[in-house]
Amino acid sequence: MSAPPVKLIVLTGSDRKEVVDEWNELLPELREECGVEIVGEYSRTEDISSETDADLVVVLGGDGSILRGCRQLGRHQIPIVGINLGRLGFLADLTIEDFREHLPALISGDYKVVEHLMFECHHHLSNGTTLVDLGLNEVTVTSEATLRMLDIRLEIDEEPITTFSCDALIISTPVGSTAHNLSAGGPILRQDLQAFSITPVCPHTLTVRPIVDSAERTYCLTVPEEPNGAMLVIDGQISRRVGPDDRIVVKRSEATFKLVRMPGHSYYGTLHKKLGWRGQLDYRERKGI
Q1: What are the pLDDT digits (tens) for 129-164?
Q2: Region of poorest pLDDT, from 65-69, 201-205, 218-222, 266-270
Q3: Phi, psi of 141, deg, nearest 5
Q4: Phi and psi of 183, rounded to 5°?
Q5: Superfamily of domain 6-111+262-275
Q6: Residues contacting 128, CB < 8 A, separation 6+
Q7: What is the phi/psi pair of residue 133, to 5°?
């Protein structure tokens, strides 16, 4: 008796011509593959029903497409296979050729699913309304006006920690640590850690440094001394104004991001390749020794 086919949801995370062209070329191949059943095709703007019965979600695009796909899945997360048609691709690290090569392994189940920390961002507005967003990378509070420094207060588990005078403040997951957090000088966290990184952007005090703390804690940000307000940005894709009486509460989500990794994948190998690490310079060679 043959094994049941692997059920795929395909998410085209971008309307770019190269993404559409690759999908139009790949679709007939998947339909002809006897071990594959496509149970849904979605664009970047469509919600994915929690009732859809699928084994894997194939995302065509880049890391931004995967971030968007996580929100489309909501709290019903399904393991994601990322095909990189973007630029850097820490999460979407398979090329289209890699995907074709590994398709038999995906059909047979010869892969590993790694679960990663996600967060909930509760935006408590001054009028009593609360807006809740699910995210994967980071929460950033930044100035609504350009070239304006903010005073951002941080509480952890309701304990006042400090007020950061800075251009912005980032609360990042391990997955997000190689995104905006890395550009701001924050630490790289191994993706399976259960922790958040708090990184100020261009702090006014030189002794202020990033903080790493447990994902079991609750983080609260306010900007009470900013009459013109600030901006809340989630995963670089959702943004809205933050008033002086608003509260931004960040905590771990019960949902976890599930990423498919093929045999032989190395986290540090990915960092080496994507970040261009070349190791220590051999000074003997430069001196002609």
Answers
A1: 999 999 999 999 998 776 778 999 999 999 999 999
A2: 266-270
A3: -110, 120
A4: -60, -30
A5: Probable inorganic polyphosphate/atp-NAD kinase; domain 1 (3.40.50.10330)
A6: none
A7: -125, 145
Identity of residue 82: G
> What is the rounded CA–CA span in Å between residue 249 and residue 46?
27
Q: Please count the residues of the chain.
A: 289
What's the CA gap between 83 and 22, in Å, rounded? 10
* Angle CA 248–164–208, to nearest 5: 130
Nearest in space to 126 (alpha carbons), one of 253, 245, 280, 249: 245
Our answer to whether residue 246 is catalytic in this structure is no
* Active-site residue, from 15, 21, 53, 63: 63
User: Which single residue is written with the structure tokens 């309307």?
Assistant: 15
Residue 119 to residue 134: CA distance in whole angstroms: 6
Token duo for residue 154 = 């941080």
Q: Where in the chain is the domain with CATH 3.40.50.10330?
A: 6-111+262-275
Instruction: Give dist(CA 61, CA 40) in Å, integer.
Output: 17
Which structure tokens are listed for 129? 């309304």
Q: Which CATH architecture has domain 118-254?
A: Sandwich (2.60)
Give the pLDDT score at 278. 67
Q: Which two tokens stand for residue 221?
A: 């940000």
Place of tokens 């309701």: 158
What are 246's two structure tokens?
């608003």
Q: What angle do CA 112, 115, 118 make, to 5 degrees?
A: 155
On the CB side of 259, CA atoms within 13 Å amount to 24
Question: How far from chain centre, in Å, is Cα 6?
Answer: 26
The rounded distance, in Å, linking the Cα atoms of 26 and 5 is: 17
